[in-house]
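Handoff note, outgoing to incoming analyst
You'll be picking up this chain. Sequence as last confirmed:
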Amino acid sequence: MVPERSAKRLGRWDLDADRIVVCEDFADDYLGQQVTKLHADLFTDAELIVHLDSDCVVRRPLRPVDLCDWRGRPRIAISPHSVFGGRGPWQRGTERLLGWPIHFDYMRRQPLAYPRWLYPALRRYAKLLHGVSLADYVLAQAPMDFSEFNGLGAFAHRHCPQQFAWEVSPSSGYDESHARIFWSWEGITAASESELRGLTGIGAAGAR
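Most recent structure output, in case you need it:
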């Protein structure tokens, strides 16, 4: 799935994709891509939806057991806000979205998997609380002050905790056992380029 104005860029790669979906363009795509993800259930009929951020690289082929426990409940790695020195990186924005104190960060490992019913449930709640659609709410936020994954995770943790497998980490670092998590805002440094080539198996001669 790509924004309409970016679709032509896909011609650079020989993609083995079953389906490519073009989604809406947004003036601020940092917020816009979060809106798209919060409506992921409208773009697929899958019962479990898996997200991987664009600045992450999967380390190995993943199995269902990596994403869900033996009961089929999505695994979500979380860290208490205390490990960040008192306030988590997305705590304020998530509390403003949901309207209650948030004690954990819910974006500690990639990919993230959620059941399709969670998305419309969060959208209905947000509209009742804020009086506008969740999309309009998100687009009115300041950049870097909203986290769609923390919103989904915190909403699930409060309203349906038994339907997820929560894995609490005492560390402020990411769990990168499934995917290497880079920071897109940093750009591609010489060190990250070297690491990316190693992770993807693309050498200097094969880079495009």
